[in-house]
Amino acid sequence: MSTTPNGDSDEQLKVSEPKTWAAGVPAVAHALQYSLEQTSPRRTALTLLNMNQVDGIDCPGCAWPDPAPGHRHKNEYCENGAKHINDEATSSRVTAEFFAQHPVSELAQQSDEWLNRQGRLTEPMVKRPGSDHYEPISWHDALDLVATELRALDSPDEAAFYTSGRVSNEAAFVLQLFARAFGTNNLPDCSNLCHESSGTALSETLGTGKGTVSLLDLHHADLIFVVGQNPGTNHPRQLSALEEAKRNGARIIAINPLPEAGLFRFKNPQKPRGVIGSGVPIADQYLPIRLGGDLSFFRALNRLLLEAEDARPGEVLDRDFIDASTSGFEEFAEHARSTDWDTVLAETGLSRAEIEVARDEVMRADRIVVCWAMGITQHRHAVPTIREMVNFLLLRGNVGRAGSGACPVRGHSNVQGDRTMGIWEQMPDHFLDALQQEFGFDPPRVHGLDAVNTIRAMHEGRIKVFLGMAGNFVRATPDSAVTEEAMRRCRLTAHVSTKLNRSHTVCGETALILPTLGRTEIDVQAGGEQFVTVEDSMSEVHASHGRLEPASRVLLSEVAILARLANKTVHDKVDIPWQEFEDDYGTIRDRISRVVPGFHDFNARVARPGGLKLPNPVNEGMFPTRTGTAIFTSNDASAPTAPPRHLLLQTLRSHDQWNTIPYTNNDRYRGIHGSRRVVLVNAADMDELGLAERDRVDLVSVWSDDVERRAPGFEVVAYPTPRGCAAAYYPETNVLVPLDSVADVSNQPASKSVVVRLEPVGAPTAAGRG
Ligand SMILES: Nc1nc2c(c(=O)[nH]1)N[C@H]1C(S)=C(S)[C@@H](COP(=O)(O)OP(=O)(O)OC[C@H]3O[C@@H](n4cnc5c(=O)[nH]c(N)nc54)[C@H](O)[C@@H]3O)O[C@H]1N2
Ligand SMILES: Nc1nc2c(c(=O)[nH]1)N[C@H]1C(S)=C(S)[C@@H](COP(=O)(O)OP(=O)(O)OC[C@H]3O[C@@H](n4cnc5c(=O)[nH]c(N)nc54)[C@H](O)[C@@H]3O)O[C@H]1N2
Ligand code: SF4
Ligand SMILES: [Mo]
């Protein structure tokens, strides 16, 4: 595949029927094919056999947890995890000669897929002011350059330190320590773009920002809601857990505007019957909800449950739990009873009968889990929606009890761990106090900038130095044109990365590429061979041991890069043994054990097979909220709408991409092949808009600031999505998401509700029409 950022591709779009089952033999075949295209059979075997095993490599694909030691399959991975790990293990290399041949301006024209395909970065490179080429630089000079720029700033708050959840606990802890010792809380992270809304709503209502369920809870639930997530693609081993739950008698309700393959039937490739049989059915009820209709859905469900309790007092709600452990019930109940059915039916696009079927499922279930991901968090009203899901769980006492609870399904493999380690622009005082006590300096207390506010600050010249660790900031963030301009206004941008991406090509006046070891690789320091740790979506913390020879002998580990940089930047301000951290990561874990709650005896406990589980107060009957109880809330926000002849667009992942990086042009489960510049539209909407299959259109977003945001050259494909709703891939459509279009309270970009019009290519533009 070859595509430029504007989407000129030499492949043709082919469309086939969407699949109604996920995984099975094709998943194994596709994983192996992609892996073997990347690297040798020997390295493929090394990565795959070590993946997610005790003493092996933690899969960097997503944050889904592993079964307990002793219960793991010898192939404990999924198609996408296998592709992802071998994308890192690739044998291709980006060298100094590559950069000599390709000026930055030329690289900026290449597609995300092309940049990634060039392979692993091998040595530090610098682009000097005015130059159009990256050239080699020694580690010593590269880190001096960053330290000098940082020290020259008028204020530490003129720097921002971005991380993604690819970073280990050890590196994350050192990074936040460095940033705070330097004097800023500007720690934007990918969580700002991912589950920020979950953390906000859960902290407020339950007193913990994390999910409350374990894998065992999921296995033993009676009813599981899978809301706003596409597990067949993005958390494939979740399907094994759902299969296990079904075997134990669970029922499943899937709520999603798109009939995603993994929601219907799963052929478990780890089991003989999954290979030869027809697989197991997953969802017992599928609700094709309109985009953003989930708040209304849960309000209606809660109203129905309150009414059922009126009819059969004492039989429906868990009054003991409500009385003993919650507050705000009466106010919530009054508000829920006022839920208007016409609004519910309009916002959800569902029938009352469908919602009543869901209620009946709920009434038959004792233990209930609600799982959700980006289909919920990336809406303007995400926070009230999650609060309403919590109301639902509280009504029948489904938190803090076996087999039930809240399950925000995390994305990046260590995104939850990074937060635990202090990567947050708003860490609470008790964490900062503990840092102060341990390291003897006074960390800044003023909250820092999140991702959206970092872009604003860069754009306005308030952030001058940007250090990115393990992500692709310009592609992951909204309003691409604005973000790119913001990035280019920085004096220095520096990225600690494994592979080439757009953030290296859209860069500051001076730009650095600092190449690093990946999680698959053997990491030897002065103190011997090192391992790192990660925390999964269910708060299990375990070790990850690299197994492959490093991609280049020049690479430094993330911890080494940060420790050396910190030493050069803040050596005269704080007395922290950065060198010791680099030599032996165990010394970092010792510090973590004294600073971060739940990590006592970290080194000893993480050495045990399977690692350790962090305590969750909710599961110990405590709700550390402002009232000391779980809190019912009254939520009013309305679902997003589009004006006549406009559609509501969600931006989402294909089956063959990993976040900002497409791997191939083959969204297999949805039957979209050969092109990513595709917009999925309901056939009746196409008729109404006068569009035919494969018509070429520009997507133009509509926002109150009247700035034109246009994604050119998309082909229209009829697809089973509710009326008025459309879907297209991220990151190609990030250009359409206005920077100001964010979730209330959490400030997370609202990438799942973008108002667009489809402008046939060749038709006069809005400006032209005057
Ligand atoms: N293979 C692979 N795995 C990944 C990733 C990857 O890129 N590739 N990324 C990782 C990361 S960082 C993350 S955060 C996760 C993301 O995992 P997901 O949240 O599954 O990711 P999306 O592709 O954004 O899919 C959103 C899903 O929500 C549905 N949806 C959209 N809007 C609504 C709505 O209003 N209501 C409801 N009920 N549903 C809605 C969409 O139809 C789609 O099925 O995956 C992780 N795992
Ligand atoms: N429109 C729209 N925008 C979105 C989303 C959406 O659904 N729609 N989803 C959002 C979500 S949920 C997320 S999480 C973000 C993702 O945003 P990011 O996390 O910023 O982006 P990634 O694509 O995961 O980053 C990929 C890069 O990470 C680097 N990398 C990979 N592994 C390592 C490693 O081990 N160490 C180091 N140092 N570098 C490494 C490689 O250089 C690679 O190019 O995007 C967000 N943006
Ligand atoms: S489910 Fe997630 S963590 Fe597990 S193997 Fe697949 S991508 Fe990796
Ligand atoms: Mo994410």
TrEMBL record:
Matches recorded under Pfam families: Molybdopterin, Molydop_binding
Molecular function GO labels: 4 iron, 4 sulfur cluster binding; formate dehydrogenase (NAD+) activity; molybdenum ion binding; molybdopterin cofactor binding
Gene3D superfamilies xrefs: 2.40.40.20, 3.40.50.740, Dimethylsulfoxide Reductase, domain 2
GO cellular component: membrane
Cofactor(s) named in the record: [4Fe-4S] cluster; Mo-bis(molybdopterin guanine dinucleotide)
Record's keyword annotation contains Lipid biosynthesis: no
Span of domain Molybdopterin oxidoreductase: 120-491
Span of domain Molybdopterin dinucleotide-binding: 647-754
Entry keywords, A to Z: 4Fe-4S, Iron, Iron-sulfur, Metal-binding, Molybdenum, Oxidoreductase
Positions of transmembrane segments: none
NCBIfam families listed in its UniProt record: Fdhalpha-like
Family note: Belongs to the prokaryotic molybdopterin-containing oxidoreductase family.
Protein name (record): FdhF/YdeP family oxidoreductase
